[in-house]
Amino acid sequence: MAVGLFVFALLHVPEFRRQMAGAVGAVVRGGHWLFVQLPAAAARLPLVREFLQSPVLRWCARNVAKPAAYAVPASAVFPLLGAGPLTWFAGLVVLLLLMSGILNSRWGRNLGKPFKTARCACGGRSIWT
Question: Where would I find the beta strands (DSSP E) of 1-129?
Answer without folding.
Answer: none
